[in-house]
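Students often ask why inverse folding is considered easier than folding. One informal answer: many sequences map to the same fold, so there is more than one right answer. In these notes we will look at a single instance of the problem. The structure comes first.
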């Protein structure tokens, strides 16, 4: 029996939708050796851990609770940036627009929150502060300019992300906010969002390029990034709340780029020192992955790094 043109179009649309899913990486194979090493690394952690890794050159992956929902903490600022750039692409905003700060925008005393009422600041600088130093007042401002959480979540859904959502200040997501905080995601989706931006597939190639450049200027580099040679370029966003620590990183390694995301929740250790178990786990995994993909690298982090870092920041 002949199929109608509508049937063919339906099949094509389903195939495209599946291909667009972040979970549907084509020809991906599990790296069993690396999986075993990472499972050993997280053994004994007092909390829940999710890990997703993909070598962008070989498409070999690691999936450990990769589709489990976790709090994003400040990693939600990556989807916020995507929603903002979608508005820019639609002509509703200009990246170099001069904004006027109002005291009503104040959330905390970060850089943006310390501005005086009536101060002028370019949108591009607010975005930079959101991604680089994780400025919270600036991030909530960007969320509002992007149309709010509802608009950002619509962009995420349209682009195949089913786990990642903005919860804070988003009507209808109050229960999710109570459970996960500002946002929620899975290790797979956050890592693949980085890959999407890197590959020029988020909003547009030009928008992706600008967003990616913003993500390569990470101020908070004391965790996984500290375990990489300082001359290796990375894109990164991390997050921390009392019972969760997280980090998503795309590494421009000499033998091929790789992307990974580590997220924890229900952590027993709620301390805010550099030797917090969550922070230590991020460093352990960052070092493990670098040594796995670059086994001939002779670089090692300073022996006294953790002690020095703790004394420097506390």
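Output (designed amino acids):
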């Amino acid at each position: 029996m002949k199929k109608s043109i509508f049937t063919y179009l339906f099949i094509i649309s389903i195939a495209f939708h599946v291909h667009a899913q972040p979970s549907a990486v084509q020809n991906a194979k599990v790296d069993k050796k690396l999986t075993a090493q990472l499972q050993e690394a997280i053994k004994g952690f007092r909390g829940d851990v999710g890990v997703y890794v993909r070598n962008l050159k070989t498409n070999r992956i690691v999936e450990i609770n990769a589709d489990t929902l976790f709090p994003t903490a400040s990693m939600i600022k990556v989807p916020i940036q995507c929603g903002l750039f979608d508005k820019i692409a639609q002509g509703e905003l200009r990246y170099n627009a001069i904004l006027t700060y109002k005291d009503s925008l104040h959330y905390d005393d970060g850089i943006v929150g310390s501005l005086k009422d009536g101060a002028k600041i370019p949108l591009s600088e607010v975005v930079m502060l959101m991604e680089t130093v994780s400025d919270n007042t600036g991030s909530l401002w960007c969320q509002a300019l992007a149309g709010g959480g509802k608009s950002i979540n619509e962009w995420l859904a349209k682009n195949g992300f089913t786990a990642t959502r903005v919860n804070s200040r988003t009507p209808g997501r109050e229960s999710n906010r109570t459970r996960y905080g500002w946002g929620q995601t899975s290790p797979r989706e956050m890592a693949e969002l980085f890959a999407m931006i890197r590959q020029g597939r988020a909003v547009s190639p030009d928008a992706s390029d600008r967003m990616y450049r913003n993500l390569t200027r990470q101020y908070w580099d004391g965790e996984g990034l500290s375990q990489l040679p300082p001359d290796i370029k990375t894109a990164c966003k991390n997050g921390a709340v009392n019972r969760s620590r997280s980090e998503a990183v795309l590494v421009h390694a000499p033998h091929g780029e790789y992307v990974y995301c580590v997220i924890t929740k229900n952590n027993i250790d709620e301390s805010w020192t550099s030797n917090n178990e969550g922070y230590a786990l991020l460093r352990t995994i960052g070092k493990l992955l670098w040594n796995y993909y670059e086994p001939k690298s002779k670089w090692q982090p300073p022996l006294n790094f953790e002690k020095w870092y703790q004394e420097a920041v506390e």
